[in-house]
Specification:
6% strand; two-stranded antiparallel ribbon; 7 helices; two-stranded antiparallel sheet
């Protein structure tokens, strides 16, 4: 949000750090030094805050990273698979562990590293699929009860004692309520399809 820009909201009080009158759901990013509309998080990989203007592109980035890492995992595992085949099925050239133990170890470590990257990017992609579907940000999901503009919704969700809940018991309570079919509040959701289109 830039001072005097189209996203500045003259009815809101100015940010105490940069002086911009940012709209609801904005938060000051201390790394970039600016207020970000619908602040999600600061991404160190991309060196930029993630918010309204680039959340969809960040989702596409995670999707592409997941596929690239999956491709690397398939390549590494296909090389390791020849080494793990039963001895009777191996040809003389694929006697990996006896003929080339260093190469085989490197291939196995590469496959394990690619598997961990695949799990990381895949789970982040799934998380952001959920966040887009419910019109939430990572910040709102993790800090929901302590976010000022969400406190009224969480007070309705948890009851009048919402503010007294210790932070360590908020997530177990949310998980318990999810199991009972009562998801946490998502006041900005406009429905699954509209959340993805808009």
């Amino acid at each position: 949000v830039t001072p005097g820009g189209p996203l500045e909201d003259p009815e809101r009080s100015p940010c105490q750090y940069c002086g911009v009158r940012a709209p609801l759901r904005s938060r000051h990013c201390f790394v970039s030094g600016q207020c970000v509309v619908a602040f999600d998080h600061y991404c160190d990989l991309l060196s930029t805050p993630i918010g309204t203007l680039n959340h969809r592109r960040f989702w596409v980035y995670l999707l592409i990273q997941t596929f690239v890492v999956m491709w690397g995992l398939i390549l590494a595992w296909s090389a390791v698979g020849a080494c793990l085949a039963p001895a009777a099925m191996r040809s003389v050239s694929s006697q990996c562990w006896t003929l080339q133990p260093v190469r085989s170890t490197v291939l196995l470590m590469s496959a394990m590293f690619m598997l961990s990257l695949f799990l990381l990017f895949g789970s982040l992609w799934l998380l952001h699929c959920y966040l887009i579907s419910t019109a939430q940000t990572t910040y709102e999901m993790l800090k929901g009860i302590s976010v000022p503009y969400l406190s009224l919704f969480y007070a309705t969700y948890f009851g009048p004692h919402a503010r007294q809940l210790p932070y360590s018991s908020v997530w177990p309570e949310i998980i318990r309520r999810l199991a009972l079919g009562h998801p946490p509040p998502t006041p900005f959701s406009e429905g699954f399809v509209r959340n993805w289109v808009l």
